[in-house]
């Protein structure tokens, strides 16, 4: 299946603005992040700390925050769109 990934801020410098990623049927957000980290090793330190997704990383699947779904276990389907961006901090 093919998933569109849109990247923002520091993630965009590594992944570019948009890209399509081929994944096995039934893959989830965790599988997508593994595939992206395998292709772009420097991305892992921005996403993970000691194997856990950093709190300041926001991931949306089709406009819904995966934290409100099943987190990294959130399943993806062909044609889904995933957005990666850091939390907006400041005042």
Helices and strands in order:
Elements: E1 2-7, H1 10-15, E2 18-22, H2 29-39, H3 44-47, E3 48-49, E4 52-53, E5 57-61, E6 64-65, E7 81-86
Parallel strand pairs: 1-7
Antiparallel strand pairs: 1-2, 3-4, 5-6, 5-7
Please outline what is shown here.
This protein is 23% helix and 31% strand. It is an alpha+beta fold and 91 residues long. The strands form two sheets. It has a five-stranded mixed β-sheet. It has a two-stranded antiparallel ribbon with strand order 3-4.
Overall helicity = 10-25%
Given this structure, which CATH class is correct?
Alpha Beta
| CATH architecture label name | Roll
How much of the sequence is in beta strands? 25-35%
H/E element string? EHEHHEEEEE
**Which regions are unreliable across 5 or more consecutive residues at pLDDT < 50?**
none
Provide a descriptive summary of the structure in words.
The mean pLDDT is 94. The protein is globular and about 30 Å long. It has one domain (2-86): Beta-grasp domain (Ubiquitin-like (UB roll), Roll), CATH 3.10.20. It is of the alpha+beta class. The protein is built from three helices and seven strands, in the order E-H-E-H-H-E-E-E-E-E. A hairpin with a 2-residue loop joins strand 5 and strand 6 (64-65). The strands form two sheets. Strands 2-1-7-5-6 form a five-stranded mixed sheet.
Key attributes of the depicted protein:
single chain; alpha+beta; Ubiquitin-like (UB roll); 23% helix; globular
